[in-house]
Every structure is written in structure tokens, then in C-alpha cells.
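User: For a reading group we're discussing how well predicted structures match intuition. Take 11141_t:CDS:1. Before you show the prediction, I'll give you the sequence so everyone sees exactly what went in.
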Amino acid sequence: MSTSLSDTPSSPNNEESTEETKQERAAIEEKIVNEEYKIWKKNSPFLYDLVITHALEWPTLTCQWFQDIEKPEGKDYTIQRLLIGTHTSDNDQNYVEIANVQLPKSDSDIDPRKYEEEKAEAGVHGGSSESRITVVQRINHDGEVNRARYMPKNQNIIATKTVAGDVYIFDLTKHPPKPLAEGVCSPELKLRGHTKEGYGLSWSPFNAGHIIDASEDTTICHWDINGYTKETRTMEPFRVYRGHEAIVEDVAWQTINIFGSVGDDQKLLIWDTRDNSDKPSQSIIAHQSEVNSLAFNPHNANILVTGAGDKTLSLWDLRNLKVKLHTLEQHTGEIVQVEWSPHDETILASAAGDRRVNIWDLSRIGSEQTAEDAEDGPPELLISDFSWNPHLPWVVASTAEDNIIQVWQPAANIYTIDEREIPADELED
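Assistant: Thanks. Here is the predicted 3D structure of 11141_t:CDS:1, as C-alpha cells, for the group to look at:
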């Protein structure tokens, strides 16, 4: 219950004053963001070896690199695909989308000296009228796409989290590049089991067809779509996990039988699918606020990271969850997404409400950091999702609330041990 200095109801003048204060704060925040962006844009040639910026028609809350890569003959670029989905207004059609991205063939083909300030692009050949990011397939979707992920064992099979709580399954090979009927959504399968929407979604990389998800109804559903038939277009979960006391934010597989979950009850739960009880095998209070994301290290499955509303990341070892390995503190907004690099077991990235994606090198834990180093980095709008490129180390795709999708690679001198000092007079204030 809130308290006040007076029991007198607020007057219209007070309400107007409060509204004016909100508008003034919003204007100040917008000015700060714009100034940060101008500084970032001028310093991009020093911060990045590669930047590709593309404006989508609608924002996307999700992005994921596919594993395949195409190498057109006689071209100096490769074509890689991104899985994205729209978040439109109520009256516009939503879609699951596949985008082609033109990228340099290798790190050696990335030239940071090639910088186009107007496009905020670096490291790629300029002068081309073609967009380097192009939507090549569009599938009708009911409502916004909260999250989309492909099955690791078959990249043509796509799962999406819907605003109604169901999970839709699409087979890309059964849908044309453009939808035939406007507004008609025809997934191959609808996975039932939830009463509310959610965002967490995880295919098992070990067991084809197995998928789990997180929901605001505090439960986790587990389906095996191998039992799907064309006659049956809906499927109920073969198991529902109930252990959280609040919204479940994220889920992730560790091994063929083990997965983890985190939620607004501040908990990290570890589940063993071989255990038929309703209780998780391990349960800890991981943070002092809601826990929004978790990820297991693909190079060492015993190590995982959690990101939370308390603006911190926590490192854990499954063999002894009673003791936190380390806390990473740098974000000034709540952390919404974490993901390990597929190329290096000590590298992970995090996105937060402070408009930034931070890249962390755990091998440097304990190293001294100057105040100037702590202030470096690109200002972004609120990050919706990001994904490490599976072929090019240090290349990341990130999406933001302003319809922008960026593909970027930090400058090599930033992440290599033998750092090249950039003279202060070369950087823009």
C-alpha cells in the first residue's frame, strides 16, 4: 500500500503536472539516445569490422541463424539465412519470415575500411543497389510471433510461440515463398497445453522431435511431434511440468534427459525427464528478481548462465548449484536474453533493456578494466533477440523495437589479447 503526505485527492493541475513531467523525461531520454547514436555512428569504423543494417516492415521479436550456407560461384559473398517473425499492429497480418543475408566469404574478406556512414554499414563492399538482407519466404501466422526456432535435426521444421499460448509447427518445404491466401494460417501442427502466452522455446538437439516451452501460466509443456499424423492437426503434451510459482520465462535443454527452466519466482529449476515425480531434481533462488533467460554452454554442458531483471548475469556449475561461480555486472537494464558463442567456450553475449548487447570473455575474469573501457560499446534500441552466426566467429545478428535488424562483428582489436590502442584524438566525442 502506498502512502502520501495528504489525503486530499489529486487536482487536475497535479495530474497535468505529472503528465508534463513524464513528457519531459521522455524527451530527455530521447535526446540522450539520439546523442549516443550519433557518437556510435561516427565511431563505428573503430568499433566494428562488419556492420549491416536493414529496416524491416515490422519489428521482429525473434531471430535465429540457420546452419546452412550458400556460396554463389563468382561472388565475393556467401548467403546465409535468418529465421524471423513479425510483430505488427492489431489490424495487419503477421508472418513467419525467412531472410537471406549476404556476408563476406570469410574474415579475410571483411574490410573495416569500407564504411558507408549514411547506411551505418562497415566491412562490406559499397555501391550495390541490392539489399544485403532480403525476405525470401513469408508464411501467414495468427497474431504476433513471440519466438521462432527451427528443429536442430531438421531445419525445415519451424516452431513458433503464439500470443494465444499454442505452439505452431510449420514445414518450410510445404509453403510457397509468398502466402497463397491472405490471412489464412495453415501450420502443419498445433501444440496445445497452455492457457496463456509465453516466450521460452527449446527443441532438443539430442532427441529429434522433442520440444519444450515456457508459459505465463507457470507450466512447462513437453511434446514429441514424432507421433504427428496428417489426420491429427493438433497435439496435447505428453507431459506437463509444474514447479514454478510464477511466470516461466525460459527453458533450455542440457542433455537428452536434462533441461533447465527459469521464471519470475527468481528460481532456476533443473528437470530430469526420467523422473516421473512432479518435483525438479534441483531448485535454487538464482537472482533477487525475475530470471528471464538461461543458456547451457555448448562446449561444457555443466556450465550455464542466467540473466535477470536485477541487471546481472550469474554463472553456475550443475555439479554444485549451491555456490554461484561468478556474477557479471555491466548492464544498466534488465537482461532479456543470453547465449553462448558456438565457437569459443569462454565467450557469451547478453541483451538487456539498456539498448545494448554485451559480449563477455570469461577468460578475462579478474582482469582490470578502465572506466573508459566500461563506457565503450554501441547504443541500440531495446533488443528483442540476437543470434551468434554459426560460421563466422564474432558475427552476431540482433533485432530491435525500431524495425531494425543488424548483422555485426566487433573490431578484432576489441576481442583479441594483443589489443591495438586507438589514439584518443581519432575517436569522436
